[in-house]
Amino acid sequence: MVRFLLARPIAVFMTFLALMVFSFIVLRTLPISLLPPIDVPQIVVKVSYPNASPEAIEQNVLSPIREGLITLNGLEQMDSKSGSEVGTINLTFEYGTQMELAYIDVNEKIDRLSNSLPEELARPEVIRINTSDIPVARVQVVPKENIDDIEVSLLAENVLKKRIEQLPGVSLVDINGKKDRIITVKPNEEALSALGMTQEQVISAIQSGNSELPGISVKDGQFRYFLRLATRVNTPSDIESLPVAAPSGAIIPLRNLAQVSYEAEEMLGYHLFGQTESLVITVHKQASAKMNELIPELKDAIELFREDYPQVEFELTQDQSNLLNAAIDNLSTSLLFGGVFAFAILFIFMKDYRIPIIIGVSLPSSLLISFLVFYFTDLSINIISLSGLALGIGMLIDNAIIVLDNITRKRESGLSLFEACISGVNEVMGALISSVLTTLAVFVPLVFLSGISGALFFDQAVAVASILSVSLAVAFILLPMLYFFFFSRSKKVEDGSESRFFSGVLKLYDSGYEKIMANRSVFLFLFAILIPLGLLISQILDTEGLPEIEKLDATLEIDWSEPISASENKNRVLELMGLLADEYQQAEADIGVRQFLLYGGDNSIQQSLLYFLFSSTDAKDEALRRLDDYIKSNYPAATFSLGDAPNAFDQLFNSALPYYEVRWKDLESKEPVSEGQMGPWLSQLPTSEWERGPGLQTEASVVFTLRADRLATYQIPMETVQDLISRLFGTFTITDIRRFGEITPIRLKESQDRFENLLQNTRVYASDSSSYILDEFVDYEYEDHYKFVTADKGGIYQSVYVTEENPEDLESDFIRWGQEKNLGIEVVGQYFKDRENIQQLIGILMISVLLLYFILAAQFESFIQPLIVVFTLPLGIGGAFLVLWLAGSSLNVMSAIGLVVMLGIMVNDAILKIDTINRLRKEYAEGGEMTKMEALEKALHRAGQIRLKPILMTSITTILALVPIIFSSGLGADLQRPLVEAVIGGLTIGTVTALFFVPLAYWFFTSKKKLREA
């Protein structure tokens, strides 16, 4: 094949040129995003039920919805949590479920259930989780002094949102912190009492004045007209002019009986930028959009906003494109330094400037053509696929060096240029194909990991497979053609002498080889000892998801665990921000209930999320310490989490599951066990290291009890008192003004007095028009009750989070504890997911090793020689672990990628060396001048000399290309440093392994008895 293609250089060159042109065109159309657009198999159903208790929401809303959704296809887990006024149901599906269909199915079932839900309940929201739901940036909208907040809210909703949505690549714009305008009606109780009137008459007059004729029309000859009432109200003055009939028959304007005015609706949540109340707009990108083009467009739009709306300030915060830009910069840096160092090393070793130029042409062309595979497999350019490309570049350089070195060696042996190109490629073709297949055999099976990890590895596996496949085509076709083109005009044939530098290196190798082969048993024992020692280092390394990145931002998630209002929550947050006012560069906070459409977390008035950006890590650490001390000393009841701000990776991998949770259900009552009974039971738990789960958390509440005996005595209907209480303490909407899609509620103004004063100052009317103090019919008491009601498929449960180091040892004790109290016990949590993932990973890696063994057995036609390659792997891994330990790094996603890169290069070197030894043994034995034992000894030594140059060149160029990252700073360098340390450590040990361990192991595994007999 090589001979055929080299005979047609113009056709080959034009074909590659056409592929590169197409690849360049395709590259401009590929979507660029932070993460692959993965469908997370989760759906959240959110319920908002004003003035309802957790128990009421669970019984009347969440329980019917759970029963209706339990038959969903692929449903793996269902958990619900109801709190005051809000409730959520989290649905987790089996991975691989068609989430588009599941989303439609959930919505259809919710629609069917709507008739069985309370009439006043708004339709539950159904939120589908997707990686593209993570906002790419946040736009802060801050009103300047003396600017109406409601007008700014209307500007954000009606103008800014629509202008940002029009930007190419934007899928959704979400807003938090909006303020809505309402009309409030505050009855004048003294005037009403003097005229013998009640609030009901005022409410009835407003409802009548805002009534609509539903679909009534009149006929006028041949025409038909729809009727509308001209008495509909639009403004507070319209309402104040409405007539109200007094019992005496007098008609009184409503302005004499109540005060009507525009007001801002009471906020259940706020957004702060710094210490200023503001709005925040989150921007979400389309899956097919390019983030590196979207963010500049968004920044340009913000500049226009500043010009068009000078009464408002705008800032762009939490830009997630920084991670992507860091990954792209790292890839560019690797290519740049890789090219520079490869040129220098190749020039030193090869004595010819043309070889580095050939590699300089082949590297970017391979990278560019691999993007064609991205296009045909619907892959985007993201952090995961870019890391796959970076992983493949090391192998790409390796293949190029091996092919060019072999062609040069063939040419120096006396072959013509044309034959040297053909023979040089054919000789290493089988070994290079095997090395690529073994790399893929180690890596590709990881795609079959369950969950998000497997989906992320898919992008990486396709990226690796594409660049390695392209690198083979380039090595077998483009490189020999370029070599032939560059050297065809040179009639001088090299004499085979090496450069002075390499000659010195070769002498060192020969000296080391002789010493090792003279003491084979000793060195073989030393290598055998190094394998377990290196792997033991892994036991002392810390493990984490992503490496520690020098983050200058931090978040504080806090639940005050007290029944406070949203305004009090805001005051406390301002207090915390004031504490650090001179220390942070930027701060924002989402307080109380969040208005985001895509927010799938718990919405509670008592919760807040604060974000801080600092100038340095020292300033951040000091500020977090102060915050921690201040909250613990001033708000001991509060529960809070303080740490680094999560990036997109953290948000994707963060599990809502607790680490180890013990759940129980009361098998008799099917209800939560009371706090009074639960206290003694919890003291008997088999462990003292536990925390209360949501179903056991308590809060103070006021319980009203209606005195039915007195109501009956005074002939007052219970419904009358209930309605009066709902108007006094709840949000009572009289009616709505609807015009052109805008809805303005008319609400009874809620009194700000204490509830005891309201009970004592409010009168309730009997059927005979006599009135009584409301306090006479209502008893109240303070008590602690459960803050949340939690449930799953099987019904209501309560739980504790176990923080013990080895909680699985206590599982039988928890079951026994539950049986004694007639409780059904279930143990769940991330612990079991992690254990399942580890078992799955071990199984997949064993399959990978088996695949690697089968490929090598087919390549070498031996069942023994593949073991040599397999035994080189733990030596390289041990070297990587050693450097990670010395550098203070951890085992994480990036260091794992570095291990795969390093193993790919190590396997490549070992395969080629064994292949060379086999070929030389055959040549020497067929010559008939030496015995098989002598042929073995000479082949081992000569193969080492032949492969020394490409092995050293590959290792040195790879290591030198990565060294600058170690001394760099910033987000990208922090992210890539563990990868670099793993590669450098593995290749340093791996180079020694390939040079000396492979011939030693080859000698050990070869049957000496048969050789001597031969």
From TrEMBL:
Which Pfam families does the record associate with it?
Answer: ACR_tran
Its transmembrane ranges are 12-30, 331-350, 357-377, 383-407, 428-449, 461-486, 522-541, 841-860, 867-887, 893-912, 951-971, 983-1005
Domain of life, per UniProt, equals Bacteria
Keyword terms, alphabetized: Membrane, Transmembrane, Transmembrane helix
Q: Does the keyword Membrane apply?
A: yes
Q: What is this protein called?
A: Efflux RND transporter permease subunit
